[in-house]
Every structure is written in C-alpha cells, then in structure tokens.
Amino acid sequence: MYCTGCDYQLEGLTTGTCPECRKRFDPADSGTFMPFPGCGWRKRQFGWFALVLILLALEVVHAVRTYADSTLFLLVVTGSIGCLSMLTGILLRRSRPDLRISMLMTMPALAVVALITSLAIHMYMSLGGWPKTIGTGGFSRSLEIHADLAMFGFTILLLSNLLAWAMLLGFGCTRRSQQWIYHLGIFTMSSCICIGLLPFAPDQFVSWWWD
Ligand SMILES: [Zn+2]
C-alpha cells in the first residue's frame, strides 16, 4: 500500500493521512492508494507527457499553416528525440524525478525565448518598426549586441539538441546513467516547444530572423 502523491509506504498506518505529503487515504478504499510504488508519479508523468504532445501537435499544425518550413524541420528533429527520451526516461526511472532538476532543464530553452522576445521588442522600439532589410544594417550598437546574443543562444540550443542523440545512446549504457534520460527528455522537449513558438511572432520579425 503506497501513497498516490509521494510513494510513501502506508502499510500499518491507520490515521488516513500520508505522513510525508499529508494526502488523505482510506485503507478500505483501494482507489485512494497504490498497490506498488511508482504507479502514482509515473501516471502523472504520462499525463504531463500527453499535455506536451498536445502543445507540440498545435505548434506543428500552426507551422504547416504558416508555411514555416525551417521551424517545422526543427520541430521534427528536436520533437522526435524529445518524445523518445521522455518516454523511455519515464519508463526507466525507478524513483520520482526531482522537480528542481526538471525545472533547471527547461531553463536554457526559456532563456532563449526571453532573449528572442526581448530582441523583437528592442528592435521594434529602437527602429520604430520592423527592419526593411536583412542583416543588422542601421541597428544601434546595443541592438546589434542583443541580436548577436539571441542568435548565439539559439544556435547553442540547436547544437546541444543535435548532441542529445549521442547523449541518449550514452546514457542508455548503464543502469545508473539511465536515470538521466528523463532529464535529457525534459531539456529536448522544452527546446522543441520553445522553437515552435517562433512562427507565432510577427511575420516581418520571423523573416528577418531566418535571413
Ligand atoms: Zn504521500
């Protein structure tokens, strides 16, 4: 008998409340506890995975409708490695993943989104509109640095996602390193979802970005 919230062993307890996470259970009602450890968190992880898949599907549909071919290609590359790592990661893990590490793994992708979004705002305000030409002609020094930083962050994110294929094979080798496949999945999946946001930006910015 295990807690559905935190996997705590509830055998022999009569209080009806998990001492670890305070979730209520009833020893007479099999729906309020789990027969084996790991059922609860794994189920929730699959729930999160399903939500991420829905987001990915929406982004793919939007990329197809707006003819965002470059984004679509990146979505397929990062999405396939992300789905594979997350799914095998959830199945291979023996314990509940640490939420703090998972959140840390989404930081690189969120940082790149913040860089690109702030660049778009900076550009629009500094130029009084969207750039008429490709490149950084007519940009102020600070805008030029901002654009370089955003491009650099985006490139590093893409390169590390391509490396993820090699890391997935490497992590699969030992039982101990297999625990990291889940976190690799969080990293690649968050990168994928963030890259898929690009076609939602104004058209003029998107065409400047890819040129
Ligand atoms: Zn609990």
Mean pLDDT, all residues: 90
Task: Please count the beta strands (DSSP E, at least 2 residues each).
Answer: 0
Query: What is the H-and-E element order?
Result: HHHHHH
In terms of DSSP E residues, the strand content is under 5%
- Provide the gyration radius in Å: 22 Å
Number of helical stretches of at least 4 residues? 6
Q: Give the overall shape, derived from the CA principal axes.
A: elongated
Query: Uncertain spans, ≥5 residues at pLDDT below 50?
Result: none
Count of the domains: 2
- By secondary-structure content and strand pairing, the structural class works out as mainly alpha
Largest sheet: none
Helix % is 55-70%
Keywords:
6 helices; 2 domains; mainly alpha; 211 residues; binds zinc ion
Describe the protein in words:
By secondary structure, this protein is an all-alpha fold. The chain folds into 2 domains: 1-37; 38-210, no CATH class. Helix content is 64%, strand content 0%. It contains 6 helices and no strands. The chain has helices at residues 39-65, 69-92, 99-127, 141-171, 179-195, 203-210. Helix 2 (69-92) packs antiparallel against helix 5. The longest helix has 31 residues, at 141-171. It is elongated, with a radius of gyration of 22 Å. The N and C termini lie far apart (59 Å). Zinc ion (ZN) is lined by residues 3, 5-6, 8, 18, 20-21, 23. Zinc ion binds next to loops.
